[in-house]
Write a structure and sequence with these properties.
- The complex is a heterodimer.
- Chain A is about 85% helix and about 0% strand.
- In chain A, helix 7 runs antiparallel to helix 8.
- Chain B is an all-alpha fold.
- Chain B is about 75% helix and about 0% strand.
- Chain B contains eight helices and no strands.
- The longest helix of chain B is centred in the last third of the chain and has 40 residues.
- The relative contact order of chain B is 0.19.
- Classes of the chains: A mainly alpha, B mainly alpha.
- The interface between A and B is medium-sized, with 23 and 27 residues.
Amino acid sequence: MIDRTLLVALREVFAERRHPDGLVAALTFTGMVVLLESLALGPGRARQPDVASGIFWIAILFSATLVSQRSFDRDLEDDAIDAVLALPGGRDAIYAGKVVALGMITGLVAVAAGVMAILLLSLEIALPLHLVLLLALGIVALAPVIVLVHVLALRVRARVAVVPIIAFPMLTPQLVAATQGTAAAISGDATAALGWAGLLAAFALVYTVLGVTIVPAAIE
Amino acid sequence: MIETTASPFPAIRLRPWLGIVATALASIATWMALLWAPTDAAQGDVYRVIYVHVPTAWLAYLAFVVVFLASIGWLWTRRPWFDALAVSSAEIGVLFTGLFIVSGSIWAKPTWGVWWTWDPRLVTTAIMFLMYLGYLLLRSLSIDFESRATRAAVLGIIAVVDIPIVHLSVLWMNSLHQLPTVMRIGAAPSLDRTMGMTLGISVIAFTFVYLALLVERMSIERVRQQRVLEGRS
């Protein structure tokens, strides 16, 4: 399964490299959010760890949804998804591959947005390694749910509207954990940062296992 | 291969009796809640909302656990009966989750001074409400019967993860909401005996109301399924 998962993930990444509209949209969106943040809230409030991390993770959530949306749009164009479904082996690899690819692309967006936020908001990070861990786990916790909901909404009327309605409530606990953990890493609370990181890891594990186990049944 | 006939389920035959028992129990529970149970020393009569609030909370959990089990049943057996059970329970669950939020809000105003506050229990319950609205939305937008049932079943299984989060949110996070008084892990309910009995009868009455509604709604859904499946064959 790992070979097929990597195959699907690489296909997604190459498709995004050839036509990087999802990545460009996500980078532009997160960049705009970081720029507007200090304008809307004022530089003092925008620099507060909980505010900066909250806005950052909301931007990442929307960006990941955009990237995934574009990936499925691409598959639906000219019925390219039929070729994906024709891949030998189970459909669990298609789901897992899309999760891996979304994680990689969203990771790229998160690094770019994170560096931009640190520089533009003059954020001082007390625990940089904890921050990197939380960033990685946050993305790993978001990706399985976003891909899962996109699969469920595939070929459904009003798909673009349905995905956020279903996915965002499901992602609220992950969003809270990522925001609180990132704020703790910025302000230097190692115990809280690791606690929230553990919760994110648990969510990532639960949704990945559930996704790989039952989502293939819904892929048509 | 899915069934194309609507085989009767024993509960369908109990339909009239469930309604009668639910009405009788609801009448007894109303009398106990309003007249028999003593007034609370701290909150006065306001606390009596508990006899609606806790049963609706229980039913919200129960309804979505039934959705979860019915979803597994559909994916496992492909019997339309399970799909009818899932959608019926989800609709009733959304109704009772709405009542759970509204009754909590009515109780919050005199005790906390606000209709709504950003408390973990309130927010997670609102999220659960939205998730199951999303479940019903997904169903309403899918066209093909089997595809709709399968997608909804997957979502019904995934969404159940939120139920423990709602219940345990008051333990995990700083909360204005009181800690669980009835469904306490590893401890007996911390409630006066008379109040506890009244609450118990209310929970049983509401459960019968849920069952009566479920059977009625399922019978409608089975007729709808029958038409769809016969139209296909």
